Amino acid sequence: MLEIKDLNVHFGVIHALKGISLSVQDGEIVTLIGANGAGKTTTLRTISGLKKPTSGSILLDGKDITHTTPRDRVKMGMSQVPEGRRVFPEMTVLENLELGAYLRRDRAGIAQDLKMVYERFPRLADRKRQAAGTLSGGEQQMLAMGRALMSRPKILFLDEPSMGLAPLLVQEIFDIIKDINQGGTTILLVEQNASMALQIANRAYVMETGSIVLSGTGEELSNSDDIKKAYLGG
User: Fold this and answer.
1) What DSSP element (H or E) covers 15?
2) Which end of the chain is more exposed for a tag (fewer CB within 10 A), N or C?
3) Residue 140 has what pLDDT?
4) pLDDT bucket at 233, cuts 50 / 70 / 90
5) How far apart are CA 151 and CA 98, in angstroms?
């Protein structure tokens, strides 16, 4: 479904991504793990079209989308839940969700998907008239995920969905990610909680200072001594 080939990204003189290549197959959960500053978020922002690469290519369903706009990528089936959730705090929960469908014109389909989001996140239904900025951190994460789902993505990018959440909420968020995937949405997950990410991932890539240094199945990397020492506290 998604293929990244030899992607390079610069911020001025800083070489942020150094020729990375990765793929995500239809129906998979693929995770990117690595320390702060490894280049994980830059990778997602470049795939989404928010950062222009210096060189390399991005293909979606075999089509080169390297130079298309972020708006066009949403139309093609990409959606991203950004780091830090980035809900619109003064707008209601319902208004935030409706913004997720801003490119759609199928009112019946939007209403159907809104019902689906409320069924998946019952707390959002209870708070649909409430300002998003008054929600808890976990509820805002659910809102950001629900908003992304309103565009009916084929592939969903999640950037640090567990950041700042209590352990019980972290487990709930990862259960929701698995549920979304089982519903037919392909997922590329960036996550510092390597242990949780590897438990649900079909495949994983490890990033260090802008390069991919290791890849394998989630199970293989969970059992790797090097990964245990570096990321799993083993």
Assistant:
1) strand 14-24
2) C
3) 93
4) low
5) 9
The pLDDT score that the predictor gives to residue 234 is 52
Looking up tokens 């290791």 gives: 214
Cα distance between residue 222 and residue 199, in whole Å: 8
Give the mean model confidence (pLDDT) for residues 226-231: 79
pLDDT digits (tens, 9 = 90+) for 12-49: 999 999 999 999 999 999 999 998 889 999 999 999 99
Would you mind telling me the total number of residues written for the chain in this entry? 234
Task: Give the containing element (helix H, strand E) for 124.
Answer: helix 122-126
Q: 3-state class of 158 per DSSP? A: strand
pTM for this prediction? 0.91
Angle at 157 (CA atoms; ends 30, 234), nearest 5 degrees: 45
DSSP string spanning 58-98? EEETTEE-TTS-HHHHHHTTEEEE-TT----TTSBHHHHHH
